[in-house]
Write a structure and sequence with these properties.
Helix content is 6%, strand content 60%. The chain is mainly β. Strand 5 and strand 6 (115-136) form a beta hairpin. It comes from Flavipsychrobacter stenotrophus.
Length: 229
């Protein structure tokens, strides 16, 4: 129900002053990252990340010559192994998917604004998740002595603010091909080690996307000056 309400809000916003809008569709690859997070790189821990595909639909409204405000709806996935050894070894095999809503502020750089920077407040709602925990006698053991389902520790909601760059390549006056690179910081817990709350796991997240964007200019009688964007 929450997802339906958020989509309805998005569609409602897009009907307001539609002539100033930009709508984009993007596809790409993304994945979790534990680099640079000392709280995820504790002594005896190891990580292995699997890259997953993503897709997003965005709407941006022009507020000023270089400033845009909008929202991005997407489907994102997380997949990784995380293990920690402290006498015994515990490893989780994590897979989760989220429907994301990201209010976004975008700033176009330069006269023609071929380069943009953006800040996004990414909120995720769990659509599917599974996690398996394996416990070993020690770090050298190759076969676990017990394996169990620990999906109950996956968070149903995550908050992942981030920032990124987007490049615009005009192919006509109204259509652009876009490429974007973004990094998101996990402000909440994604899951926990095993089926307990003893150690929270909150990796960072990177995304690379390519897409197509359609511009909708305001009616000519509303335009005071003609800009390159």
């Amino acid at each position: 129900m929450k997802n339906i309400l958020l989509i309805a809000l998005f569609l409602g916003l897009s009907t307001y002053s539609f002539a100033q809008n930009r709508i984009g569709l993007e596809f790409g690859a993304s994945g979790c990252t534990f680099s640079g997070r000392s709280d995820n790189q504790t002594i005896g821990s190891t990580q292995s990340v699997i890259i997953k595909p993503n897709v997003a639909l965005s709407y941006m409204r022009k507020l000023d010559r270089h400033v845009y405000l909008g929202v991005k709806l997407g489907l994102e996935a997380n997949s990784f192994f995380y293990s920690k050894t402290n006498g015994t070894k515990v490893q989780i095999d994590h897979n989760s998917s989220y429907f994301t809503v990201a209010p976004t502020v975008d700033f176009g750089l330069g006269r023609y604004q071929y380069m943009h920077i953006f800040v996004a407040m990414n909120m995720g709602f769990l659509t599917n998740g599974n996690q398996t925990t394996s416990e070993y006698i020690n770090a050298a053991a190759s076969v676990p002595y017990t394996t169990y389902n620990s999906a109950s520790t996956i968070s149903s909601f995550i908050f992942r603010p981030g920032f990124g760059l987007k490049q615009h390549f005009p192919i006509s006056r109204m259509w652009h091909v876009t490429m974007s690179e973004a990094f998101y910081y996990m402000a909440t817990d994604l899951t926990h080690l095993g089926n307990t709350n003893d150690e929270a796991i909150h990796p960072g997240y990177f995304s690379l996307q390519m897409g197509i964007m359609r511009k909708f200019h305001r009616p000519k009688h509303h335009l005071a000056v003609k800009t390159g964007e």
